[in-house]
């Protein structure tokens, strides 16, 4: 798996869930399909009068979620921004050409109510529950930063192996200390809760 494949899977799914935060700090989510994909960015369309647009202009933070029929989850965490005014028509026309249904929603020049946002810097997480053991990885778009998650076993480990017996994905290896195979870890916390000497830390 790599970033390019994640973006292609998102494009094939088509309709993605976009989550934002409103002015009261409450989460908001909606489905968006008016999206254009480049190798180093995604562009999407919404109308200026929508709450979605206002939330993006005021805050910009967005999480995008995609789920495939193969039990794969792809999550993009980013900050979106409106493209410069002189580029709006270019990207709007591209999106309308790729998504013909939009001409029924915004016929003729009514499409000018739209605004195009861009994401060119993001953290992209891939999580596949359809394989055994599960597989996960994290990629960056445009030099985005990766937030550490999950658990690690520290030097306090006494080698009792209890964490290994409690791991549902069998992704803990013996060693001094024992080691979690991060690409197969569920982040469930079972090892953390069952370590008798508290040698496991949450990232």
TrEMBL record:
Gene3D superfamilies: 3.30.70.20, Electron Transport, Fmn-binding Protein, Chain A (2.30.110.10)
PROSITE patterns reported for this sequence: 4FE4S_FER_1, 4FE4S_FER_2
Keyword set, alphabetical order: 4Fe-4S, Iron, Iron-sulfur, Metal-binding
Entry keyword 4Fe-4S: yes
Molecular function GO labels: 4 iron, 4 sulfur cluster binding; metal ion binding
A Pfam family: PNPOx_N
Needed co-factor(s): [4Fe-4S] cluster
Domain of life: Bacteria
4Fe-4S ferredoxin-type domain sequence ranges: 147-177, 178-203
PANTHER family registered for this protein in UniProt: PHOTOSYSTEM I IRON-SULFUR CENTER, PHOTOSYSTEM I IRON-SULFUR CENTER-RELATED
Function text: Ferredoxins are iron-sulfur proteins that transfer electrons in a wide variety of metabolic reactions.
Protein name, UniProt field: Ferredoxin
Lineage of origin: Bacteria, Bacillati, Bacillota, Clostridia, Lachnospirales
